[in-house]
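Illustration 12: Phytochrome sensor protein.
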Amino acid sequence: MSEQKPTSADQVAAFLRQHPDYFQQRPELLELLRLPDARGQAVSLLERQAAILRERNQELRERLNGLLDVARENDRLFELTRSLTLALLEARTPDKLFRGLVRTLEDDFHCDAVALLLHDREIPILGELRKQVRLIDDEALPSGLAPMLRPGKSVCGVFRQEELKALFQDQGEQVQSAALIPLDFHGPVGLLAIGSRDAMHFRSGMDTLFINHLGDILARRLSEVGRSSTARQAQRA
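Figure caption equivalent — predicted structure in token form:
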């Protein structure tokens, strides 16, 4: 008579997978099983299962809370973007457009630095706005910024100090991360740069849906108010 080989752990595991109701037929065995918990103390299988379910429930709750936080933040950004869009649409002159843009980004979006660089030299820039709204001199900008001025999606992340200085001038020293939004409408219009003191605020790879939308609206409005301003100047002449 051949000696019977002992059952391996893999065989037991395979058997239990094939018969998940095995312990329902032999509930007395559950009382004999003991598993160590995180503290090394032996607990019953039912207690261990309950602990695992509690852990999974906590993980699901944390994931749900994370999704709710993202949804609330998206709602907040949507409302702010909506208000800014309406303000841009209502502006009838370049000066009102610039002031509304800068004020909203600084006060409502809590941006630490704002710079609007324009190609159109016919658009008048008045008073203290010249600190944040300037004409682009492509040759004076660092070479690393040249690709950012081309039409395309916005770019977020950390930039070199010389690039931040070129974009934000005196404010560049305090900027740790930035979003660069190319403005294009039937040709290059300019670049909107938004800076933050927080190095993690504008992260590479972050969702740019809202700022891309802002860039599209702003480019069109700049083109429209620029043409209107030029027409008024021609009439006065």
